[in-house]
């Protein structure tokens, strides 16, 4: 994914705000439209603007993401007064090389 101009600046700012936060609250949507939030360990916030998390291959969250990829991530670092809410789309990645690289 390529970001240009002000998009690049926004991605850089987002990366700076969340890269050191260890836990994000991830909200997914279940089949009835109800919202589910759970803590996720922030594995990596890469410089392309992608946020990476590890989870069990078969879980409620992966089923919900497979059905409806819309998610929200909440980050907070009270010591720096950083509070970030990100709405976007999640993708389940099972590629072994990518997993090894991110782990």
Detail the topology: elements first, then pairings.
Blueprint lengths: L4 H14 L4 E7 L5 E7 L2 E2 L5 E2 L7 H8 L2 E8 L4 E8 L6 H7 L1
Antiparallel strand pairs: 1-2, 1-5, 3-4, 5-6
How would you describe this structure to a colleague?
This protein has 103 residues and is of the alpha+beta class. It has 3 helices and 6 strands. The strands form 2 sheets. It has a 4-stranded antiparallel sheet. A two-stranded antiparallel ribbon has the order 3-4. The longest helix has 14 residues, at 5-18. The model has no long low-confidence stretch (mean pLDDT 86).
Tell me the β content. 25-35%
Shape: globular
Q: Give the integer mean of the pLDDT values.
A: 86
Question: Which parts are unreliable, with pLDDT below 50 for 5 consecutive residues or more?
Answer: none
What structural class do helix, strand and pairing data support?
alpha+beta
Helix content: 25-40%
As laid out across the biggest beta sheet, the strand order is 2-1-5-6
Q: What characterizes the major β-sheet?
A: 4 strands, antiparallel
Number of helices: 3
Helix and strand element order:
HEEEEHEEH
Rg computed from alpha carbons, rounded to a whole number of angstroms: 14 Å
State the assembly state of the protein chains: single chain
Q: Terminal Cα separation, in Å? A: 21 Å
Gist?
The protein contains three helices and six strands. The protein is an alpha+beta fold and 103 residues long. Strands 2-1-5-6 form a four-stranded antiparallel β-sheet.
Give the key terms:
3 helices; 103 residues; four-stranded antiparallel β-sheet; alpha+beta; two-stranded antiparallel sheet
